[in-house]
Amino acid sequence: MDKGTLIRTIALLVALVNQILVLFDKSPLPIDSVFVEQFLSVLFTIITSLMAWFKNNYVTKKGHRQKEALLEKGLTGDKKQN
Fold first, then answer.
1. Tens-of-pLDDT digits for all 82 residues of the chain?
2. Which pLDDT does position 23 carry in this prediction?
3. Are residues 63 and 57 in contact, defined by beta-carbon separation less than 8 angstroms?
4. Do 67 and 82 contact (CB within 8 A), yes or no?
5. What is the pLDDT of residue 80?
6. What pLDDT sits at residue 42?
7. Nearest Cα to 70, choosing from 42, 79, 6?
8. Cα dist. 16→9, 10, 28, 40, 76 in Å?
9. Are 60 and 53 in contact (CB under 8 A)?
10. In angstroms, rounded to a whole number, what is the distance separating the alpha carbons of residues 59 and 67?
11. Half-sphere exposure of 15 (CA within 13 A, CB side)
């Protein structure tokens, strides 16, 4: 069994145990719903912010090469040669 399969299997078992505990009204983590809502909201904001920033902003080496190729071929509206 490779490392990825082992990690996914453990995560699945933890999720199943958690679901069984919730089914029997035993909360494994004493977390209130307000905290969960706030955490998910912050997580969603962080993920979407990173995706919006990373997408089409040429922040990787590959992205810089792509931008250079587009500029060389005149395929962008950007008149500035970086």
1. 788 888 899 989 988 888 888 788 887 777 788 888 899 899 999 998 888 777 667 778 888 898 899 889 988 776 555 5
2. 83
3. yes
4. yes
5. 57
6. 92
7. 79
8. 11, 10, 12, 21, 50
9. no
10. 10
11. 6
Q: Which amino acid is at 49?
A: S
**DSSP per-residue string spanning 44-77:** HHHHHHHHHHHTTS--SHHHHHHHHHHHHTT-SS
CA 26 to chain centre: 30
Euclidean distance between CA atoms 51 and 43, whole angstroms: 12
Whole-angstrom distance, CA of residue 70 vs CA of residue 11: 43
Q: What is the largest CA-CA distance in the chain?
A: 64
Stated pTM of the model:
0.44
